[in-house]
Amino acid sequence: PRVIYITRHGESTDNISGRIGGDASLSENGLEYAAALTKFINKHQAEFQKNCLESNINNFSSQMFNSEVNIQNCSDVIDMKLLGERFEIWTSMLKRTVQSAKYFDNSNIKVKKFSVLNELYSGLCEGMTYKEIPKYYPNESLERSKDKLFTRYPGTNGESYVDVVHRLQHIIVELERLHNSVLIITHRAISRTLISYFMDISIEKMPHLNIPLEYVFACVPKAHGNDLFVYKYDR
Ligand code: F6P
């Protein structure tokens, strides 16, 4: 069985200044997370594959996975060649996700970029802080605080969560068909949407899920649905 790993990019310079949207690069912390991610995936996949071969599929997850495992503790031994055959990485087209995959560059793992994995587009509010938005767009801001699911950001192509659900439909079909395991490095709103789909979380709750930076969410299939395992990078 394949694992779908979902994570946000490492910390960006816009995350530090509290600006939404944009196309900022990773900070030092962000680059550190990117490096930790390669170790984590390598170790996790090695144990996962080994365990699938050795044990009954019904009980492998309880044996092998401990939620909230510390990513930092993963071994330094990286055998990306073995992983490459059965593993893919998908990023958005934005720098912060592409840079978060950069330490996989010297492996034979395919990295695919998809614009549909870009962050929810905040229209005229791109580059603003959450404090600035209500000053410039009080009505939209109030509307969004009441109905985050349906409210679009102002300006051409400004999106709502429902818009994001629609644009992710094709990629979800692709994911359902995929036999390989995949690491999806994306953004907060996109992670919320994908995790809600795989974990059957209601659309009303979805825009409010807590998806911090430096967490990996692993969706592992079971008979009906998926198990979710959560891993945190401890600095
Ligand atoms: O702050 C990071 C970010 O990814 C923004 O770019 C984006 O607009 C936001 O999170 C999505 O979260 P929310 O819909 O809760 O503002």
Automatic annotation (TrEMBL):
Any one GO cellular component localisation term in the record: cytosol
Keyword Nucleotide-binding carried by entry: yes
Lineage: Eukaryota, Fungi, Fungi incertae sedis, Zoopagomycota, Kickxellomycotina
Molecular function GO terms recorded: 6-phosphofructo-2-kinase activity; ATP binding
This protein's record includes keyword ATP-binding: yes
Residues at the site labelled Transition state stabilizer: H187
UniProt: substrate binding residues: R8, H9, G10, E11, S12, T13, D14, N15
Active site: H9 (tele-phosphohistidine intermediate), E85 (proton donor/acceptor)
GO biological process, one term: fructose metabolic process
Identification of the protein by name: 6-phosphofructo-2-kinase domain-containing protein
UniProt keyword list: ATP-binding, Nucleotide-binding
Transmembrane segments: none
